[in-house]
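Late entry, evening session. Most of the bench is empty. Finally got around to the prediction I had been postponing all week. Sequence below, unchanged from the version circulated by S.P.
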Amino acid sequence: MKRIKETVKYGNPILQTLKSKKKQKTGFYSSMFAASHSFNLTDWGNLPIHIVLQIFQYLPLVDRARASSVCRRWNEVFHIPDLWRKFEFELNQPATSYLKSTHPDLIQQIIKRHANHLQYVSFKVDSSTESAEAACDILSQLVNCSIKTLGLISTAKPSFMDVSKAHFVSALTVVFINSKSLSSIKIEDTPVDDPSLKVLVANNSDTLKLLKMSSCPHVSPAGILCVADQCHGLRELALNYHLLSDELLLALSSEKHVNLEHLRIDVVSENPGQTEFHTIKKQSWDALIKHSPKVNIVMYFFLYEEEFDVFFREETPVTHLYFGRAVSKSMLGRIGLNCPRLIELVVCANGLQPLDDELIRIAERCKNLTAMGLGECEVTCRGFIEFVKMCGGRLTQLSIMEEVLIP
């Protein structure tokens, strides 16, 4: 009997195999538990730097700063240059804004340790002059920088215009001189002037691709012409109509110049009857289109009805038109006749005269029209149906107020 039991216990190969597998399985779970327990006891400070860096790149600045206090290793990662290529300085006054500002200590730390790492910099200021002056103070300290893009943004009224012109120009010139590879500059609603633009051209003519400087009253047509003459890589330009000239369009059309991609023109009048608007020759527009056939020409109009007389008397290659104030029927009629490249048209107000004929003419002649917006205007239902029949197949955006349609 004993021999039989021993045979059953030890001699059956199937039972031995099952027992062996059970031991292996138990051993596997034990080793997994041990590894997991060991991992839980791992010092987070020993994580590879490239992993911590990747995590930091997804964190907001405040959370990144808190994480940097975990250990010395994480603090070192916090100061790696790759994390400081792009930075937005927010400058707000508690009395005039509910938005938080970049802490002064952090600003000083950036200037001291990371000025030479900054490449994509923007300043966002509220409506107070103090915030704009603080932005200028920071700009003037960026002497060891290699900035590629610079943006000055006023979130409310253009507060940079309230800063002393000398103070602003001096601070901006520091960046223009020390950054030798500026490619994008947004300095709208600022007191930038012709001499500072010359400094920009002297140091960054080979790299400048985008320049937005609408509402810069201290810049003359000669100042912007200097930029176009020297910065042959310029692809995007935004300016006010008073800076636009035949000479500028011809400079942008020269053989040395790359194809222009985007031209934005703001046509603004604050005092009706006191601003005289010049005309641009058709030959100048033709030269630009021949040189840059795919350029988008965007025009924003903020005029009074009596000030539209000089516009669109001849064929104009505009692609996007926005009218922020009332526009006359005759003006819309000229658009239908002389704007064959038109892609988008937005009319905020027109008055109480139905626009049936004008819209139908635009539908007939503007074969590229794909977007239309009508605000305080009037169109008869019959006229609107006719308009939709003619260009509805190509319209991708159509926005009209309910009150626009009349019986």
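Two things to note before I forget:
Residues 85-272+280-400 form a domain with the Leucine-rich repeat, LRR (right-handed beta-alpha superhelix) fold (CATH 3.80.10.10).
DSSP finds 15 helices and 14 strands in the chain.
Will write this up properly tomorrow.
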